[in-house]
Amino acid sequence: QLQRCNGEMTIEKLPDKVLQEIFSYLSPYQVLLVGQVCRRWKSIANSPSLWQYVSFRPNYGGIQVTNQDYFMHLIGTRFTELRVTELATDLITPNILHEMAAKCPRLYALTLDFSTAMQLHDFTDLQNFPSRLHSLTICLSENIFLEGFLRKVYTFISSVEVLHIIGTYEKVEDEEEEVYETVNVHKLKQYMPNIRVVNLWGVPFITDDHVDAISSNCAHLECLCINYCTKVTGSCLRLVLQRCRKLRSLHLAHATLDDKVMQTIEWEKTRIEELNICGTELSSDTLKLIVTRLKNLT
């Protein structure tokens, strides 16, 4: 209970556990600020339980890390209960990934942002990587190939069920500009036997052949997103829907879908409950045909 001081309730009298509960509603940046109020608040603000969901991508509202050595120290003290985190390009290093693998056993969702990378770190000595991930997000660079890095982590990602690959759609200004296949999506998927969700957003090199390859031996797939993958015409969908019997959510927004191809698909035999085909310029006849055949649409 709150104690009274001069007839008024004061925040100084709140127990540490109550203050910690209050701080849990603050953003990581706000927790840093309240930690500057006094020594007691700083001690509470440093509690690992307040640092379970943290982004270190300053371009997207995350915390800016200016001292990597001190950051590595914090991984083993303040961030031991980390569950969800996002790393900017300069923080994706062998040492930091090794520390997270060793000191953050509860980490289940990891975002690796390579989108601003001009050059990768040397991952030759990378021997460890978080191995209990449920979700992995990779933000691609326009011209940095990730195979050298991924080759080191393939054996650690078998637990991943949700894969997000964020492409460079928003950066491509010229449609005829040369596009590089900066990640081997099919090979990456092979090391994720339990994958349920695949989200390829705005990946400029993704074609129907890639989607077809991804769907092979992917019996647990429930959600497939290929929004803004403009090289996808839909020719892969017939086989994808036959292979992935559990597929319920299909997102094809702004793909270059072909009317004739979409009309030949046996939609009535699928379990699709959610379909996104906005911005695809399909004809009204095709839209009517698809919608009327989808028995499970919600």
TrEMBL record:
Classification via Pfam families: F-box-like
UniProt-listed GO biological process terms: positive regulation of protein ubiquitination
InterPro entries given in the database record: F-box-like_dom_sf (IPR036047), F-box_dom (IPR001810), LRR_dom_sf (IPR032675)
Family matches, as SMART domains: FBOX
Lineage: superkingdom: Eukaryota
Domain F-box span(s) in chain numbering: 8-54
Name of this chain's protein: F-box domain-containing protein
Organism: Parascaris univalens (Nematode worm)
